[in-house]
Amino acid sequence: MKYLILIETTGTGYSAYCPDVDGCVAAGATIDEVEERMRGALEMHLDAMQRDGLALPEPRTASSYVELPA
């Protein structure tokens, strides 16, 4: 499955979350680091959901940019 993650700048680096998977977050010093940590967090989160007999959330979030005149 392919899940969208959103990455935000923080005072110490970056944080990320997945709108389709409640409670799944990660932080890192660089974008590459936060992406890798988020991948691991999603894998662990989804594995735990499967072990608990829960249905995995379907990826449903999309992204797009809107350009506005400056």
Describe this structure in words.
With 70 residues, the chain is an alpha+beta fold. It has a domain at 6-51: 2-Layer Sandwich (Double Stranded RNA Binding Domain). It is 30% helix and 17% strand. The chain is built from one helix and three strands, in the order E-E-E-H. It has one helix spanning 31-51, and strands at residues 6-9, 14-17, 25-28. A three-stranded antiparallel β-sheet has the order 1-2-3, covered by helices on one side. The longest helix has 21 residues, at 31-51. The N and C termini lie far apart (37 Å).
Quick overview of this protein structure:
By secondary structure, the protein is an alpha+beta fold. The protein has 1 helix and 3 strands, in the order βββα. Strand 1 and strand 2 form a beta hairpin.
Quickly give the CATH architecture of the domain at 6-51.
Answer: 2-Layer Sandwich
Quick one: biggest sheet? 3 strands, antiparallel
How much of the sequence is in beta strands? Answer: 15-25%
Q: Which structural category do the helix and sheet elements fall into?
A: alpha+beta
Fraction of helical residues: 25-40%
Low-confidence stretches: none
Distance between the termini: 37 Å
Helical element count? Answer: 1
Would you tell me which CATH topology of the domain at 6-51 applies? Answer: Double Stranded RNA Binding Domain
Sequence of secondary-structure elements: EEEH
Number-wise, the strands total: 3
Main β-sheet, spatial strand arrangement: 1-2-3
**CA radius of gyration:** 14 Å
What would the average pLDDT be, to the nearest integer?
A: 97
Supply the CATH class of the domain at 6-51.
Answer: Alpha Beta
What is the overall shape?
Answer: flat
